[in-house]
Specification:
Helix content: 25-40%
Radius of gyration: 18 Å
CATH class: Alpha Beta
Distance between the termini: 8 Å
Structural class: alpha+beta
Number of helices: 9
Length: 288
């Protein structure tokens, strides 16, 4: 039986954020609030003579492969930093680049699996630092890695893996998200004008409860100028139905909670049922 290790990391719905910049990636990132979700990324790694990466998106019902990528620069960067050559296979069921924190989940699950496979004896914090650095360097996210270290509705009070994070578990059993297409994070995170608008729109505090989270996040989506025409239409539809909703950050989509959410959002585009996560990244299996 060949040696391998498998780890899982939940995804993350970011509601609002404020970027923090600096010369040290470990001190860069974002403050902000979001929800960790059970739907994430499973990564399996095996020893290899050269780095070989496959990213698969599968149908959540049939398991059929919907999308395959054979290049992932942030993961390759992570592996180089960890000093290993492996065959990596990551699997997810949510759309890639749609604001579900999947890049962070792929990096954190990869670091966790590699750490186990090669007995590197890194702490979860150190694995998180490596994953966070890869995400910052490649501008695929700012605070998702820190959020995915645990579960719940998170509020990050500082940047980086060492940030103080409040976690609450008051989100209903299910959430619903509609996706209108990708919104590449590097395009937004690399735009000084977009980031200036984000900084001005940041609420400056943690939500008091789940309802307050959606109110703050929805206002942020509008004030930041990040909401697309499709997002604005979906938010209006949710408002008319009395459904708490906001934009996926960063993605061209909307997520909402409530029994009526699926009926409203499914009439607008590709819709996904999501579940709040109680825990963060974890090792699934290791074979020697």
């Amino acid at each position: 039986m060949s040696a391998c290790a498998t780890a899982f990391c939940p995804g993350h719905l970011s509601g609002y954020f404020r970027p923090v910049y600096g010369s040290d990636p470990g001190r860069c990132g974002s403050l902000g609030a979001g929800i960790v979700i059970r739907e994430g990324v499973t990564t399996t790694v095996r020893p290899a003579d050269a780095i070989d990466i496959t990213v698969e998106r599968r149908d959540p019902v049939t398991g059929a492969v919907l999308e395959v990528l054979t290049s992932a620069p942030p993961i390759e960067y992570l592996l180089v930093q960890m000093g290993v050559t492996v065959k990596v296979k990551t699997e997810c069921t949510l759309p890639i680049g749609a604001g579900f924190g999947l890049s962070a989940a792929a990096l954190l699950s990869t670091a966790t699996a590699v750490n186990q496979l090669f007995s590197l004896f890194l702490s979860p914090f150190e694995c998180g630092e490596l994953a966070h650095e890869a995400e910052i360097v490649h501008k695929t996210g700012l605070g998702d890695v820190a959020a995915c270290m645990g579960g719940g509705r998170d509020c990050r009070k500082d940047a980086g893996i060492g940030a103080e994070i409040d976690r609450n578990y008051d989100i209903p059993d299910t959430l619903c998200a509609v996706v209108f297409g990708p919104l590449p994070s590097p395009r937004v995170l690399g735009s000084p004008d977009a980031m200036e608008r984000v900084i001005r729109a940041f609420p400056g505090r943690c939500p008091r409860d789940s309802g307050d989270f959606f109110r703050l996040a929805r206002k942020f989506a509008i004030d930041s100028g990040l909401a697309t025409t499709e997002v604005l239409h979906a938010l209006t539809a949710c408002d008319e139905a009395g459904i708490p909703a906001t934009m996926t950050m960063l993605g061209n989509g909307v997520f909402a909670c409530g029994k009526k959410a699926f009926k409203v959002l499914s009439s607008l585009g590709d819709t996904f049922i999501l579940h709040p996560a109680e825990t963060g990244v974890r090792l699934v299996e290791a074979r020697g």
